[in-house]
Amino acid sequence: MQETLERAYRNFDRLVAENPGAVSVWLSTTLSNRFLDHCRRRRTEVLGAPALRVVQDTESSGEPAALEQWEQVSREDFQRAIDKLRPPHLQEAYRLHVAGLRYRAIAQRLDAPEGTVGRWLSEARQALRGLLTPGAASSEGRARP
Questions:
Q1: Are residues 77 and 122 in the same domain?
Q2: Which structural domain, as residue segments, surrounds residue 144?
Q3: Which of 16, 31, 69, 124 could covalently link to 90 via disulfide, CB atoms 3.0 to 4.6 Å apart?
C-alpha cells in the first residue's frame, strides 16, 4: 500500500488532471501490480534460497543429484569461475547482483539499460554452469558469450 501511495505522490501532477474514476482505477491497478510483484519476488526468494549457495539453477530441476553436484563445488572453484567470466562486464554485473544490487542499480552503475543487465546476468549464469559442470574444459568455449 505504501509503495502505491509513493507512486501516486510521484505522479501527482498527472493524476490530479484525471477524473476521479481514472485515478481510482490507476490506484487499484498499481496496488494489484505491486502485490503481484511482491508475491513473485517472495516466491523466487523462497524457491531459490537453497540453490543460492552456488549458482541458482533457473530451471529448478528438483533432482537431488543435480543439487548434490552443485554442493560439491568449493568456494574457491566458484570464485575462480567468476574470475573467468568474459567479457568483463558479465563478471562485474554478476558480482554486483550477488552483492544484492537490483537490475536498475546495476544498470545505473554500469551505464547500461536494465534489459541488457538482465541478459548479461543470464549469460553469466549460463557461463558459470558451463565452467562448474564436470567436463567443463570441453564446454568452456561454448559457455563464453
A1: yes
A2: 55-145
A3: 124
Do residues 40 and 98 share a domain? no
pLDDT, tens digit, 9 for 90 and up, residues 92-120: 998 889 888 899 999 999 999 999 999 99
54: CB partners within 8 A, 6+ apart: 70, 71, 73, 78, 132
Q: Is the domain of 36 the same as that of 87? A: no
| Interhelix angle 114-132/75-84, nearest 10 degrees | 130
Identify whether the C-beta of residue 102 lies closer than 8 Å to the C-beta of residue 114. Answer: no
pLDDT in tens, 121-142: 999 999 988 888 866 544 444 4
* CA gap 43, 2 in Å, rounded: 21
Domain count, the chain: 2
Distances in Å between the Cα of 15 and the Cα atoms of 11, 30, 81, 112, 136 are 6, 13, 50, 30, 55
The pLDDT value recorded for residue 138 is 43
